[in-house]
Amino acid sequence: MKNSPVGIKRLEGIHYYVRDLERSRQFYVGKLDFAETWRSSPELERDGRQRSAAFTAGNCQVVCSAPLGTGGRAHRFLSKHPDGVGTLTFEVEDVARTFALVDERGGTPIDDIKTFQDDGGTLRQFSITTPFGDCTFRFRQRDGYVGAWPGAVKVAPASGQGTNKFGFEEMDHITANFQTMKPMLLWMEHVLGFEQFWEVSFHTSDAAKAVHGAETERTSGSGLKSIVMWDKASRVRFANNEPARPFFRNSQINVFNEELRGDGIQHVALTVRDILTAVRELRANGVAFMPTPGSYYNELPERIIKSGIGKIDEDVETLRELQVLIDGDHERAYMLQIFLKESAGLYGDATAGPFFYEIIQRKGDDKFGAGNFRALFESIEREQLAKGIV
User: Fold this and answer.
1) What Rg, from alpha-carbon coordinates, does the chain have?
2) Cα(86)–Cα(109) distance, rounded to whole angstroms?
């Protein structure tokens, strides 16, 4: 018998712990054209020992907090990890019902339900621990409450800033990496009432065997298993990855976990209205993306036909120029996506961590790009094989 969902309405936002709040402000406001909408009050900074700011574009909200001395949540997180996502916040229909369900199913509340008031109304919330490393989940019921969080002060965006000129809309999904993800999948199913939505697994060594024969001796490669869980009512989705053998330690998933020093949130996908325009303008604004090998686009026309998509609206050469990926599995239904460089690469600072953002435009396809996973990994692998790197 399936457990009922806990009443999630939406993913309200992420809470990102950073060492340099001003650097984050310059990235979100200066590079992504998010509006800075809320800041922590002096009283909250004194009591919580951290300084916070909320950045918003469309329905995407990122709260960044940096430590002020020792003892606060940001300091505790950053004493163990590089910068990273430490809390996911969900709006729920009935926080008392959510608390009761989570508690009776073996979830671990950090606190009892707390109630706050502002000029708009009431906020009731509580938090739980999770199998997502040191990332907690917070559940909130808003009855007219308008603040980003208790103790937040409204900020008026500077003139000409925060207009969301790149067209960000929603947080499409959260992706997390685990050394072993089965405990988390069971937790999401039995505690939160999530269901499995999609899955894929592959290894780049398969490509070498296809080209060079089944007996090909490999010394490296990268593979994964990915399972997506979702809350069907709210459509909140989590893509979850674990490394695959052989060469477990070489897997990009394992490398991420070693850099984060534990399981945790790898990336957040943000939807946009028009990805080609957004990527072109973001590049012009100094945003750096992960590169895509040219071989990916050499084979793209054939992949579009074989996938069942048949025809796309975009020109392949434009996709090549902008290095945007495309995937789908039925006629005229597909998705376009691209990945920003991880934070450590964006800032040239290892302590900024391996977290990154995905930008995605969905055109009738609701899945997660199995073809892109495989095609991109195998394209990289083929280029490495041709150069004798692996």
Assistant:
1) 21
2) 16
Per-residue pLDDT of the chain (390 residues; tens, 9 = 90+): 789 999 999 999 999 999 999 999 999 999 999 999 999 999 999 999 999 999 999 999 999 999 999 999 999 999 999 999 999 999 999 999 999 999 999 999 999 999 999 999 999 999 999 999 999 999 999 999 999 999 999 998 778 788 999 999 999 999 999 999 999 999 999 999 999 999 988 887 664 444 444 444 556 677 889 999 999 999 999 999 999 988 888 888 898 999 999 999 999 999 999 999 999 999 999 999 998 888 889 989 998 998 889 899 999 999 999 999 999 888 889 999 999 999 999 999 999 999 999 999 999 988 887 777 666 566 555 544 565 545
56 φ/ψ angles, rounded to the nearest 5 degrees:
-135, 140
Q: β-pairing, 35-40 with 168-177?
A: unpaired
Cβ–Cβ < 8 Å for 180, 186: no
Nearest to 139 by CA among 4, 9, 41, 270: 9
Furthest CA-CA distance within the chain: 70
For residue 16, give the nearest of 362, 341, 352, 361 by alpha carbon: 352
CA–CA separation, 266 and 253 (whole Å): 9
